[in-house]
Amino acid sequence: MRLNLRHLFAMLTMSASVAANAQSITTTPPIITESTKDITITFHSDGGNQGMVNASASTPVYAHTGVITNLSDGAWKNAPTWGDNSEKYKLTYTAPFTWEMKIPDLREYYNITASGETIEKLAFVFRSGDGSMECKTGNWGDIFVQVFPDNFPASKAADYPGGVPKMGAETNADGSVTFCLAAPGKTNVVMMGSWNNYTPAPEYVMNYQDYNGNRYFWLTLDNIEKGKDYIYYYNVDGASNVGDPYARLILDSGNDGFIPASVFPNLPAYPSKRISGVPLAVFNTERDAYDWKVTDFKGVPQSDLIIYELLIRDFTGTEGKALGDGTVKGVISKLDYLKDLGVNAIELLPIMEFAGNNSWGYNTNFYMAPDKAYGTPDDYRALIDGAHERGMAVILDIVFNQADGGHPWFDMIRRNINPFFNGSAPHAYSVLNDWNQDCELVQQQWRDALDYWMTAYKVDGFRFDLVKGLGDNDSYGNTYNSETNTWGTPNDNNTNRFNASRVARMKALRESMILTKPDAYFINENLAGAEEENAMARDGEINWANVNWASRNYVSGTGDMSLSRFYAPQDGDRLWGSTVSYAESHDEERVAYNITNTGTIIKGNFTGACQRMGSMAAQMLLSPGSHMIWQFQERGNQQTTKNSSGNDTSPKKVDWNTLETSTARKNLLATYTALCAIRADYPALFRETATANVELSSATARYISLTDGTTELYLVVNPAAEKPTVTAEIPFPKNPATGQTAFLSDSKYELIASTLGVSPATPGFTTTGVTLPAGGFAVYASGPKSGIGDIVADSTSDRPVVVVDGGRIRVLTPYTTLTLHNLSGLSLPVDTQLTPGVYIVSVDGTPVKVAVR
Known about the structure:
The chain is α+β, with helices and mostly antiparallel strands. Helices cover 16% and strands 26% of the residues.
């Protein structure tokens, strides 16, 4: 997702909360008890919701403050009337963005006189004297300071078990669990848990270890019950309550109540009477237990990917409505549709815990917790398992350049000294909070997150968002202000130029990934120059190639209609197979939107538009290399994805019934299905070892010819928009006697796909080529599929006896060697539980085709 400041308002519509800012309050001393005297409360106006960031040194600033006690049932007590400008509540300006107030004695200041009443928390909202400015937390909640029991101990130095801290929750051999939080520059952390009603207790004060220049707080808990939820958060230096950055499930006070029980049954209730606003982590020993049906999935080679990009929120849901109520279970119900379409990978827009329930997912807060708005963790696993059963990989979109304000590392450290985040981005394309890519703890988080999704969820790879934002801070030619932790105004040229640090960073991430999954897919949304992307490609990465503008031109019949960028070697001399090119993505306007308006050749002719979309798809999908289809592109979806601010992130209308009333859409879907089948049937022709001739820029006749010496495949396209027909010469072999493009009548050439809904339905032939209607295409092939050679329909008496038993292959005749392939040529384990389809079994070198029903 490419964002800059003009996309700010579009981005904010993705969640129910505005991006938060960092810590707004600190205390001296950092640990406060009821008996602590002469407390200093320091208010940082550039933190929280930044409601008072514009306050000047002369602005009167007041605290609206009260307490929460053991008798107040979670409610404020003894606060003044709103707007009380008494001297007692006035703060003193001490430095830019900084004000202070003194509390000599807590019980006296807050008028707590009953001997049986104890102060648990101080509560604050800061405001200007006239009330025009108001500062709360980043999520617009009240600001709290923890008051600990008297004689409460501070964190003590002690080495993490084994000596090397591991962030998150680690289960030990004896069944105990060690929890660990990285918190540089902090003094004290207390683990606050459901096991004692979130009450601070000495036994839950965490130890700390300084290791490799960072400070880690850790605590080992014994007597952990199997399968039980342990809900917790961390109190850092008394004034910051944060979740666990490595949590596998998050509870959210502001949004969980809007998730239906049908989407997430038995969701633990947020303890709103004890806590307000802080994201809670849920630990369960069985958090990653799942009975996988497919344990050994292996997808197609990276250059063979035909990806279907989808947003769970809008892919399913209430038919005919734009409610954004799609779910993981809804996607599962459509897996057979995707299998029948013929794609071999599904790419999900970010599913990691994001702010709010209504989002594209690019406002991530917790990188290892699936967002609950779409379903349970096991729902996500069932989706991935179901995709694998159907031969489809699952790729996750993931956002490493920015986070929303709910991330614990953002919330617990002031912006100007935060080692995890830049106060402002050094590059030109950030909206939310910019990660400091120079921080090793940040990079460790990335490595751990990738590893977790590949192991606990069996994800097959990742698409990395906004790679241009993942360079070293000083690689953008920008100036740094160490006092504010901010960078000068970035510019596009410096951001877009070749950046060696981005190449190195993505290489390092891939090296980490392949230790866990050697064949993991690695896709960059970099949209940079060929020099940088070729450097990434040499490391085994592929890069997004945006051909949306030319695709829209081609379909409308206007402007530059060249589609040569679908083929990487013709896209600025990029390396073969180094791109995943697309006509549509979540970031781009629909090809079908606005194409029938004034100024287009196909004005008022949606049938003609669908036919041109079909020939556009043929040029994309039959170009060697990886490609992507954005959800419902194959059905000619016309809903706009843009507004005046850029991307329109609001929910889109769910309309699976479009095929019922539109033959043109049915034909377009059938065209995509046929093209995907060609990619699956002839995989060897789309490998680098095959010979390819590609001409996708001609205004009169376009073609793709592919051959591996045994099998031939030819696409021919009439790109014209106005002429009724054209004779398009295609590079069939020449007749050596006449020199003409011949053999068109030779039965070895089979028409395997063509434009649907045109008359005549079958292309005509001349001595030099094939006659096609305007915007039409045809595909011819000769030779065996999949490089396997001729095979018989089923076993015969003189061939090996192969049967299907319960979805598994059994050979009833003696044999020495046995191999199993699908029709894409993909090798499968011989004991695989097969889904319905046709497979090739080779018994001692003899191929047999079998059908699994």
